[in-house]
Every structure is written in structure tokens, then in C-alpha cells.
């Protein structure tokens, strides 16, 4: 990618500019520029508009020689990309009737991946993540949140957060790190509260000082951390200056209400939440992130995204890519499949994986194609945007462009 370029023509460019930040969206509201071009300077958008007008400028042109539809690069706002090993054996057990919780109670589940991730070196983790980032870029994802949480000791969690940092420096995709050391209690500790006390005192200050992450996550549920434990831990994290998010209401209610109480940026999962919980999230401006990949992986119903939208919430969709509950790691496919069942309009689905997902990460420079924003863009080989979700993930992008790319190529 050169320093300055006019890219086009796009048969259609879905800029997502000016769309409502909350609630339902109809496809008529999609801002579409026909026969469009994008003027990019040093990885940022200077201008979007009709290609014929843009090409008159004395700027190099990168011509797209096929029918193309462009949209903002996809944003995956919730993943656990940094792990080693496989849990295909557990998946087979679940297909034979075992539950996710019963596998975890026997020492499998998250702790299974923890054992394998502790054994992996930083270099091995970087190489595994690089492969996963390559697959994300091929699917059009240009920003991906990545959680720690498969180390659960000071050293191993720092190794994971460093591995995310190293991968971020090497990759064209932007990675947003989140510290999820409060994923589950490791066997080295007798109680949840002793463990949380330990990480709040010893790990969080290092994460903050070394700028390894500015977001803290916790798994709030019956099998993980209780509301009381989570409140205490998250309050400490907030005092240190972290943004908060939570794995909330996946199997039992309570987590989303806590996220609202503490002013978290997002509350993720929400399969078990109710209209009362959504009202609290809406009032506290917490972004609800639903994770169809976890429903597909566990064979459980989706979070009720349609009803949340109808209640006025700004629903975002993420893949939850992880080795246990969501091994697929394909955001657009999952959003398309969930959209078919939940009856999400195409505008709602695209919003959920672009600008509404950016809100879930509190990122204000992406998710929309407009001047001043990052030139993160995904280009599909088709002449009508509806072909993209119609193909339910089978239509792959022809090109994915990122703001980081021009710097790395330079
Ligand atoms: O988002 N719910 C907790 N954490 C992950 C699963 C992690 C795992 O099973 O390894 C999730 O589903
Ligand atoms: Fe998750």
C-alpha cells in the first residue's frame, strides 16, 4: 500500500456513516455510495465519494478490476485467541451428551487449555496467534480483541499478554488486549476470593504499568465467580484505572446487572438475560455483545438479539473464538447464521460487526468509512451488498485493507 492512493471503483460502498447508534435498523437506512472511491493518505481516509470525481485528482489510482462491494473492516470485539492445544475430545464428549459444566467440574474445560497453554513458550503462542490472525484477515476482520485467561499464574498471564503485544506489532490486523486472569480459579488457590485478591494486588498493577492491557474482564457465573466476588474485584480494577467488561449471564443471570452497576464498557454473552437486565444495560450505556459462536459450539439457544434491538439496545456481535465453547472463529458466518434465526436485518448485522462493535471496545477511529477514520476496509467480489450475508459466510473477501498496512509496507 502506497502512502497516498485513490482506491476504486466500488460498485457499492457501505460507509455505515450516520446510522443510529442504538436500536433497530432497516436496510433502507444503509448509506450506500454507488460507483465509489476512497482517498487514503498514510492509512487514514481523506475522502469517500464518487470515483469519477476522485480520480480527477493528481493522486495515484489503485483500480479495482472486478465488481466490488466495500465496507468497513470487520471488528471482532470478543475473542480468546491466545491458547495452545485442542479440546476436540471435549467437543466429542459434548456431542455424546456431556455438558460444558460437567466437563469443567471434572477438571477439564478452561483448566484443560490452561495446562496446555502454560507449557507453551511465548514464541509458540505468537506463532499460533499469527496463524489465527491470518485467517481473520482473510475473513475481513481488521480489529480483534484478544483476552488472556489461559495462564492463571502471574508468569503465565504476563507471558500471554506479552505474546499478544508481540503479535500485535507483527500483524496488519489490530489486536486489542484484555486481561481475563479472572477466568476461573486455578488449582493453586483454595478459594476464589484469595485468587482474585492475589491478582488484584500483584498482577493488575504490572499490567497497568507495562501498558499490557487497559481492559479487565471476569467470568461471572455460578461455576466461575460470584457477583460479590466479581463486584469487589472489578471495583479494584476500576480504581486502578481500567475499563471493565464481563462474561455475563451466559448460564445464570446477574453479571449484566453488575456490569451496568459498575459502568462497564460492555457485557458479553447474555444468553440467560431478561428484559429487566437489558433495561439496566441500556440506561447505563453498556454495549451488549452477543456471541453466536458460543451458542453454535455448545448447541444452546442464541442470546435474544432481536428483542434486545427492539428494546433499543446497540447490539454488537463477536465470535468468542476459543478452544472450548467457540472453536470455529468465523465472525461473519456466525453473524449471518444468527441473523437468519433471530431475524436481524442486514443493516443490523453489519452494524453489529462494524461501528457498534467499535463502541464495545470504545474505539472511536474505526467501524465507519469516513474522513479521519482508519482506512480499514473489506472488499467483496460482488455487485450487491446483499450477496454477502446471503452467502452466509461462503463468499470470502477478495481484499482486506488495514490502516497498519501502509506503515508496515513502507
Ligand atoms: O466465552 N465463558 C467463559 N469463557 C469462554 C470459554 C472458555 C473456554 O471454554 O475455554 C467463553 O465461552
Ligand atoms: Fe468469551
UniProtKB/TrEMBL annotation:
GO terms for molecular function: imidazolonepropionase activity; metal ion binding. Pfam families: Amidohydro_3 (PF07969). Transmembrane segments: none annotated. The keyword Cytoplasm applies. The lineage of its organism: Bacteria, Pseudomonadati, Chlamydiota, Chlamydiia, Parachlamydiales. Keywords: Cytoplasm, Histidine metabolism, Hydrolase, Iron, Metal-binding, Zinc. InterPro entries: Amidohydro_3, HutI, Metal-dep_hydrolase_composite, Metal_Hydrolase. It comes from the Bacteria. This is Imidazolonepropionase. GO terms for cellular component: cytoplasm. The gene is hutI. The keyword Cell cycle does not apply. Pathway: Amino-acid degradation.
Amino acid at each position: 500500500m502506497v502512502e497516498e492512493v485513490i482506491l476504486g471503483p466500488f460498485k457499492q460502498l457501505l460507509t455505515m456513516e450516520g446510522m443510529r447508534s442504538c436500536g433497530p435498523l432497516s436496510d433502507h437506512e444503509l448509506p450506500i455510495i454507488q460507483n465509489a472511491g476512497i482517498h487514503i493518505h498514510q492509512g487514514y481516509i481523506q475522502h469517500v465519494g464518487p470515483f469519477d470525481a476522485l480520480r480527477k485528482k493528481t493522486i495515484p489510482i489503485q483500480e479495482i478490476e472486478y465488481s466490488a462491494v466495500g465496507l468497513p473492516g470487520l471488528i471482532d470485539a470478543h475473542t480468546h485467541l491466545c491458547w495452545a492445544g485442542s479440546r476436540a475430545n471435549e467437543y466429542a464428549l459434548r456431542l455424546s451428551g456431556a455438558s460444558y459444566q460437567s466437563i469443567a467440574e471434572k477438571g477439564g474445560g478452561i483448566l484443560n487449555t490452561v495446562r496446555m497453554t502454560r507449557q507453551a513458550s511465548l514464541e509458540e503462542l505468537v506463532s499460533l496467534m499469527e496463524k489465527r490472525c491470518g485467517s481473520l484477515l482473510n475473513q475481513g476482520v481488521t480489529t480483534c480483541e484478544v483476552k488472556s485467561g489461559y495462564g492463571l499464574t502471574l508468569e503465565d498471564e504476563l507471558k500471554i499478554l506479552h505474546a499478544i503485544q508481540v503479535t500485535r506489532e507483527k500483524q496488519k490486523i489490530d489486536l486489542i488486549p484484555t486481561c481475563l486472569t479472572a477466568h476461573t480459579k486455578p488449582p493453586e488457590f483454595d478459594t476464589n476470593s484469595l485468587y482474585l485478591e492475589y491478582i488484584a494486588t500483584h498482577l493488575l498493577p504490572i499490567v497497568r504499568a507495562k501498558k499490557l492491557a487497559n481492559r479487565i474482564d471476569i467470568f461471572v457465573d455460578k461455576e466461575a465467580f460470584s457477583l460479590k466476588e466479581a463486584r469487589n474485584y472489578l471495583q479494584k480494577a476500576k480504581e486502578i484505572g481500567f475499563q471493565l467488561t464481563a462474561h455475563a449471564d451466559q448460564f445464570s443471570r446477574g453479571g449484566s446487572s453488575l456490569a451496568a452497576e459498575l459502568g462497564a464498557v460492555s457485557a458479553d454473552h447474555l444468553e440467560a438475560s431478561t428484559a429487566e437486565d437489558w433495561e439496566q444495560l441500556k440506561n447505563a450505556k453498556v454495549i451488549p455483545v452477543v456471541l453466536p459462536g458460543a451458542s453454535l459450539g455448545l448447541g444452546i439457544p442464541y442470546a435474544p438479539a432481536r428483542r434486545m434491538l427492539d428494546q433499543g439496545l446497540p447490539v454488537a456481535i463477536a465470535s468468542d473464538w476459543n478452544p472450548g465453547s467457540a472453536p470455529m472463529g468465523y465472525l461473519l458466518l456466525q453473524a449471518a447464521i444468527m441473523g437468519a434465526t433471530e431475524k436481524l436485518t442486514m443493516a443490523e448485522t453489519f452494524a453489529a460487526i462494524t461501528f457498534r462493535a467499535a463502541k464495545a471496545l470504545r474505539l472511536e477511529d474505526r467501524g465507519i468509512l469516513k474522513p479521519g477514520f482508519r482506512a480499514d476496509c473489506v472488499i467483496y467480489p460482488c455487485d450487491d451488498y446483499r450477496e454477502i450475508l446471503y452467502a452466509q459466510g461462503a463468499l470470502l473477501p477478495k481484499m482486506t485493507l488495514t490502516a497498519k498496512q501502509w506503515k508496515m509496507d513502507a
